[in-house]
Specification:
alpha+beta, two-stranded antiparallel sheet, 6 strands, 129 residues, 3 helices
């Protein structure tokens, strides 16, 4: 994993990171790929510093790849975590929904700590979509 943060003129800090996961070293990216990814991250940070502040947006959005996974994790994953359901100050969206359907039938979520890979990729989380 590597990360970087840059501060805009208005003082806003903008972090970016890249992480890799594998159970064995040969499952990791090559040094060349990681160096390329690091250069991309640095260039993206520089571009972020120079970019204008985005206006708030309400409307449709298409999410793919990592962004889709992170979005799903943030809006659903945190809310089904048992520890959060016990904390009165945390998201308890599904606390009273145990054994009830909370997602469309077209979407499957599997929670199995025995699954280590999916589609030839090592998994670091047990939440699969």
């Amino acid at each position: 994993m590597f990360n970087g943060t840059i501060k805009a003129k208005d003082g806003m800090e903008m972090p970016l990171y890249e992480s890799y996961f594998a159970f064995k070293p040969d499952g990791l990216q090559s040094d060349q790929k990681m160096t390329t990814d690091m250069n991309i991250l640095v260039n993206n940070l520089i571009a972020l510093k120079a970019a204008p502040v985005a206006e708030p947006y309400t409307g449709p959005a298409l999410l793919t790849g990592r962004a889709a996974g992170v979005f799903f994790h943030e809006i659903f994953g945190h809310r089904v975590e048992g520890q959060r359901m016990k904390n009165e100050n945390d998201a308890q969206t599904f606390k009273k929904k145990v054994n009830e359907q909370v997602l469309p039938t077209s979407l499957n979520v599997i929670c199995d700590p025995n699954i280590k890979t999916a589609e030839n990729q090592d998994l670091k989380r047990v939440l699969l979509v």
